[in-house]
């Protein structure tokens, strides 16, 4: 759990940013982030979306680079010891599941990948402090967005869906939902860069426009919802800081009322809302999958079926085959991170992840007046989008997934000590009309003024 006792920190203007990591670190991290999204590598080396030996070999240089960077930055990692404890608990539980796993070899292989991915997340959180992490994500995603446009227009057989969802854009990925989720990361990171004190605006603006446009082009309702949630968080905190105390109170109460209204509409008219959005009440068959999986969860509620072992190939996992037979199609995953976690690690794993997510969110809110301002409230924005996405996609404790890596990076940043121990206000204090500044010597803006001769 994040250390909630270290939430008092310096005002944002006191420490605008920490030194940026070296250029070679940024380049290597950008490549690894792109690999974690599955951009181009997956469709080329594993077109059937199943693990292949060559795909595992492709990851070996990335693993070596991660281990090397961890050793190089060992002096910064030890400060994030609470995050290390959380990672050990997560990886330890996944490792322990080998004793009851349906597929021992797959569980062990994916536990190793999970441990290395979490190590990379620890590195990102400890080394890329302040606005440097959202800027790295913005730049990497902008590069992938440009690459997606090249694939869409120059190689449409790869960049555009040909069978299912024919005509919709998928860019460098297997399907449109993957591109939409990655572009949400880029758009929220770009918005955070614009909201931060960093004066550079051109590249973040281009990234925000391009990433948001690609989200709309995928026609993915889930990605669009995550984008709106993430941008709303950044816009809300930025508006509260600029608008003053009275405006902040009005904005918070408006958000609470609108949130309650949305929940009431969903509770009473969910079918009509889904039809208006072009979705069927079963969420494209997801509810049938969830009902079937919860019956399998009831068979092993406290252990699950082993980390990464439930969704085997046809004939390799009896519980998965039963779900596929009951739903009538080849289900690749639960399409819900929490249910997928239940079938893998049971309630202990689900409660552990839920507790870490809650603790990280609380710490990010408490730090919103300091580190939140310096990073453009990226952590809160990402956590909101990540939570929304977790109810539609299996992203929790993914052994090779960007969204899980970024969550662990946010957790790491939340546990690191602040630059100093001075609290700062969320809302700027505004000087009233005709009110002059203080003339007390100790509070003079340019320091104390000493006379040439002493006055007696």
Search tags:
single chain, 456 residues, 18 helices, 63% helix, disordered N terminus
SSE layout and pairings?
Blueprint: H1 23-37, H2 41-45, H3 53-72, H4 74-77, H5 81-96, H6 104-127, H7 132-154, H8 156-159, H9 176-195, H10 202-218, H11 221-243, H12 245-276, H13 286-297, H14 318-327, H15 337-366, H16 371-374, H17 378-390, H18 402-415
Helix pairs in contact: 1-3, 1-7, 3-6, 5-6, 5-15, 5-18, 6-18, 7-9, 7-10, 9-10, 9-11, 9-17, 11-12, 11-17, 13-14, 13-15, 15-17, 15-18, 17-18
Give a nutshell description of this structure:
The protein has 18 helices and no strands. It has 456 residues and is mainly alpha-helical.
SSE string: HHHHHHHHHHHHHHHHHH
Structural class: mainly alpha
Q: How widely separated are the two ends?
A: 60 Å
Q: Tell me what portion of residues adopts beta-strand conformation.
A: under 5%
The biggest sheet amounts to:
none
* Count of individual beta strands: 0
Shape: globular
Overall pLDDT score: 85
Low-confidence stretches: 2-16, 420-424, 442-456
Given the structure, what is the number of helices?
18
Radius of gyration: 24 Å
Helix content: 55-70%
Give a written overview of the molecule:
The protein starts with 22 loop residues before the first helix and ends in a 41-residue tail after the last helix. Helices cover 63% and strands 0% of the residues. The N terminus and C terminus are likely disordered. It is mostly helical and 456 residues long. The chain contains 18 helices and no strands. Helix 15 packs parallel to helix 18.
């Amino acid at each position: 759990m994040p250390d909630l006792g270290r939430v008092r920190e310096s005002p944002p203007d006191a420490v605008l940013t920490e030194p940026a990591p070296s250029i070679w670190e940024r380049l290597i991290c950008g490549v690894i982030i792109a690999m974690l999204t599955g951009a181009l590598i997956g469709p080329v080396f594993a077109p059937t979306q199943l693990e292949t030996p060559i795909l595992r070999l492709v990851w070996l240089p990335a693993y070596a680079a991660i281990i090397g960077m961890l050793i190089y930055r060992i002096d910064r990692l030890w400060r994030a010891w609470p995050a290390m404890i959380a990672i050990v608990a997560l990886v330890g539980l996944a490792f322990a599941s080998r004793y009851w796993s349906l597929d021992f070899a797959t569980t062990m292989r994916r536990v190793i990948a999970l441990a290395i991915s979490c190590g990379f997340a620890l590195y990102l959180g400890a080394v890329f402090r302040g606005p440097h992490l959202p800027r790295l994500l913005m730049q990497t995603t902008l590069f992938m967005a440009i690459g997606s446009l090249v694939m869409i227009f120059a190689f449409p057989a790869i960049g555009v869906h040909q069978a299912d969802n024919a005509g919709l854009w998928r860019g460098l990925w297997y399907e449109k939902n993957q591109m939409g989720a990655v572009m949400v990361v880029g758009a929220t990171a770009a918005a955070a860069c614009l909201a931060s004190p960093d004066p550079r605006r051109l590249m973040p603006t281009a990234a925000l426009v391009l990433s948001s446009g690609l989200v709309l082009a995928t026609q993915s309702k889930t990605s669009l919802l995550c984008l709106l949630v993430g941008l709303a968080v950044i816009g809300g905190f930025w508006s509260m800081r600029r608008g003053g105390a009275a405006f902040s109170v009005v904005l918070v109460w408006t958000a609470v009322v609108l949130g309650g209204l949305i929940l009431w509409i969903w509770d009473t008219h969910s079918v009509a809302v889904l039809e208006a959005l072009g979705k069927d009440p079963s969420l494209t068959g997801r509810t049938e999958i969830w009902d079937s999986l919860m019956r399998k969860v009831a068979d092993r509620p406290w252990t699950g079926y082993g980390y990464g072992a439930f969704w085997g190939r046809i004939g390799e996992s009896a519980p998965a085959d039963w779900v596929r037979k009951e739903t009538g199609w080849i289900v690749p995953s639960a399409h819900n991170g929490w249910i997928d976690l239940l079938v893998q690690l049971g309630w202990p794993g689900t409660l552990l992840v839920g507790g870490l997510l809650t603790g990280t969110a609380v710490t990010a809110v408490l730090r919103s007046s300091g580190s939140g301002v310096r990073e453009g409230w990226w952590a809160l924005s990402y956590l909101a989008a990540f939570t929304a996405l977790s109810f539609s996609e299996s992203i929790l404790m993914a052994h090779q997934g960007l969204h899980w890596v970024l969550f662990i990076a946010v957790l790491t940043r939340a546990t690191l000590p602040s630059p100093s121990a001075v609290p700062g206000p969320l809302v700027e204090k505004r000087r009233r009309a005709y009110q002059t500044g203080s003339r007390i010597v100790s509070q003079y803006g340019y320091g104390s003024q000493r006379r040439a001769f002493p006055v007696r």
